[in-house]
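This section describes the prediction task in plain terms. A model, or a person checking by hand, is given the sequence of a single protein chain and must write out its three-dimensional structure as a string of tokens. No templates, partner chains or ligands are provided. The sample shown here is typical of the held-out split.
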Amino acid sequence: MLKHIVMVNFNDREKVKELSVKFQSKLMGLVKKIPELKQMEVGLNINTKPSAFDLVLMANFDDETGLNIYRNHPDHKKVLGFMKDSVDKTAVVDYYFE
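The expected answer:
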């Protein structure tokens, strides 16, 4: 299995909670729309350290082919388009696990 992790920081610090909840809902909606997406968890940060990110997405795929289908899926691209003006920075890690 392949794990895809994305951490997100939003640029509007006063709307972090609102944006996090909105994007959590939109991301979780992809599970029913993209068969290659085997499992997804979206967590909202509770850590107050300045180095902490606002939101984390963890998704499982069978392999890189499934991940690439997800990345290019029209519904995923819609979510990315919706997020683009709200995101300050991201960090991504993809790895295989048993």
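For orientation: Helices lie at 16-28, 64-72, 74-83.
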